[in-house]
Predict the 3D structure of the following.
Amino acid sequence: MHHIPPVRIKDIADFAGVSVGTVDRVLHNRGEVSNRTREKVLGIIHKLNYQPDILASALASKRDNKIAVLIPGGTDENPFWKYPLAGVEEGLREIVHFGISLERYYFNFTDRESFLRQSAKMLSDKPQGVILAPVFTGEAALLLDSCNELKIPVVLINANICSGSCLAFIGQDSLQSGMVAARLMHYGLGDDSDVLVVNFIRENGNQNHIIKREEGFRNYYRDISKTGDSLLRQVNIGETHGNINGIMRKAILSSPRPVKGIFVTNSRVFRVARFLENNNCGNIILIGYDLLDENKHFLKNGTIDFLISQKPREQGYKSIMALYYHLLLKKEVEKNQYLPVDIIARENLQHYSFT
Amino acid sequence: MHHIPPVRIKDIADFAGVSVGTVDRVLHNRGEVSNRTREKVLGIIHKLNYQPDILASALASKRDNKIAVLIPGGTDENPFWKYPLAGVEEGLREIVHFGISLERYYFNFTDRESFLRQSAKMLSDKPQGVILAPVFTGEAALLLDSCNELKIPVVLINANICSGSCLAFIGQDSLQSGMVAARLMHYGLGDDSDVLVVNFIRENGNQNHIIKREEGFRNYYRDISKTGDSLLRQVNIGETHGNINGIMRKAILSSPRPVKGIFVTNSRVFRVARFLENNNCGNIILIGYDLLDENKHFLKNGTIDFLISQKPREQGYKSIMALYYHLLLKKEVEKNQYLPVDIIARENLQHYSFT
DNA sequence: CTGAAAGCGCTTACAG
DNA sequence: CTGAAAGCGCTTACAG
């Protein structure tokens, strides 16, 4: 149980009969080393299982590792994106001593142009790593290509557009989350109850989430319910659509049998909750996504039964940690990091506030 | 947006007209400084908002921060405690560079003596910080006192016996978790269905968890159900009790009305699941605790409907991080860290495997 | 009570 | 292609 002093660059240099400078050149492949010494040094490094002291390295290099985070700005209208950022900043605090800094590039998630502007700005700042929310699929894919050319590692957050060329994807398995929602719905309603699926659709945005969620929901019902997914009806609403009363009323009334449950495939579930309250549809089970303040309000008062959380804060935290492991520790990073699908009811809401 | 070079000890020394040695003595209250210089230096430190570079500090000091973790060994019979340890080790990997090492002291959670032995061993090794699972309440409280006298910060994990004298408690709000279980039960069964609460009791162990969980469960039913908690019946089983068939059969048969749901207040829920399968009680809703392999098995095949996770891995992770923040970063640590009550169904089990 | 100097392990010019 | 030396910010004896 004795403490073995870790091997240092100096030790390697002594063994190889060279100077520490040469060892350093080998370690960082910065050339100017004869092949012969190179091989010898590498052999010793390997044999001694040398692990660099990243403390000393960071202290000596004073190199600034700029990490760029390119995400929508969290607005009052769509506060969701505040949480991944908070997670990134939480992670930053743990590793800031290693000379890591954060540059934030916000874009408007309804404005393609703003994304392009911020992308360009970000690239010109030459970050060492990027955290990217690929809200605009096509544009994000192009940016990904640029980063690959520049050898800048990219972590995709929340939505996956990775075609093999990113460091990691961190987010939720949307298909699975839809199945979870369906399970909760079915568990509460039992067989043979009509359910309405409500999609709030944004033009020109990445709808992949929503499609997958609905698909998961339908898959569950198809597999489990005797009558197939014929119990499910569906309505699409433009996200910018003002008053949803008319649409909702029509969707509910036009149902051949009474609607017993509603599944909203994104965070706009509070709009449906508001509708239900105003129209005294008290006993309809309502399930949706994300712990926005408005959603929490309706979860607390019982209009919303369950919310599914994407753990946005943890997404952010894991994103910056993935870059830290890759850039600083030179460790392998898990490529697909699916976060658990959190089920939130009124009773367990409390301690999720910080997630 | 320009980079302000951080203030160093050297800067303070220059301002104060003293040497860095003196500043260091002030910073670490190691005396041998006149009051006059002390005051002056402190003033400047304050004014310049000096933040030590913990990298340089750790590198120069080569001090070994021993963290002791005193928990039950994870056995096949009770694998639960493997997970907090895995979380501690995960955290360790992120901070090991700062000269932090881990000493593991395992005790047998059915053997009070083994706890005392390991406590003594641990204390004699003089750790800088302790992570403690207070399975034996009285003995753990005494250990806590000893640590306080020795000024060793203690993080309590999983169960809270902290009477104001620990650095932090990290675990779950048991009362709340019982309410979550009740909510799920009630949501699935509706009003007016009989429910059985099963407690597996260990003599000479800390039963506080179990009591609180049942209390939360009862509180929910008392508040929500028209008929009060009269729907609830209860049975206690000794944890070492071999075959539970007789007890369970009696409990179910003696119920005036058919039992529709069973809530098991700890991880032994798989024993009840086994009973239900063997006795073809297919349509009873079953809810219990913890993602043990056996429990996962019954969750997957549908015998168990929901499991509540205590996030043991995260408890471990947060424990060591709390000590890191306290010992190394000298930051304030949140005293009561309640982790969210995770609801696990078959559909979202998958990505919880790593939690 | 105080200061000067060496050292932690690594990096970075610079000289040859 | 290689080595010697200075330096990152802090800590630790040691001399006075």
